[in-house]
């Protein structure tokens, strides 16, 4: 399984779109600031949206599409499933 996810620093803050095959590990890395980069520099740690795909190709295509979306489109996507912008990390199953 492959995952496309959106992290946020807050409702009005910075958004980050990523893709991984291990959602728990990858979000943990973002949250802990394990690697230097965009999410560490901008404090983007809250998992607010996740989509699951069968193939890497599907996930990559979706990630690229979401990265081209306008911010308000991403916000609408998040609010359809997660209107409170809650951190979904603890709702993830085991890796």
Q: Which helices and strands appear, and what pairs or packs with what?
A:
Blueprint: E1 2-8, E2 15-20, H1 23-32, H2 38-42, E3 46-53, H3 56-68, H4 71-81
Antiparallel strand pairs: 1-2, 1-3
| Biggest beta sheet attributes | 3 strands, antiparallel
Count of beta strands: 3
Derived structural class: alpha+beta
How many domains, as an integer? 1
The CATH architecture name reads 3-Layer(aba) Sandwich
Structure report:
It is a single chain. The protein has 95 residues and is an alpha+beta fold. It has a single domain, classed as GIY-YIG endonuclease (3-Layer(aba) Sandwich). It has four helices and three strands, in the order ββααβαα. The chain is globular, with a radius of gyration of 12 Å.
Keywords, separated by commas or semicolons:
single chain, 95 residues, 41% helix, alpha+beta, GIY-YIG endonuclease
What is the compact description of this entry?
By secondary structure, the protein is an alpha+beta fold. The chain has 4 helices and 3 strands.
């Amino acid at each position: 399984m492959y995952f496309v996810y959106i992290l946020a620093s807050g409702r009005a803050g910075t958004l980050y779109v990523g893709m991984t095959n291990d959602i728990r590990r990858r979000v943990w890395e973002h949250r802990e600031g394990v690697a230097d980069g965009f999410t560490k520099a901008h404090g983007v740690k809250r998992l607010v949206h996740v989509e699951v795909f069968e193939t890497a190709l599907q996930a990559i295509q979706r990630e690229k599409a979401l990265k081209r979306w306008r911010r308000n489109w991403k916000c609408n996507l998040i609010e359809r499933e997660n209107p409170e912008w809650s951190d979904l990390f603890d709702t993830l199953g085991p890796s």
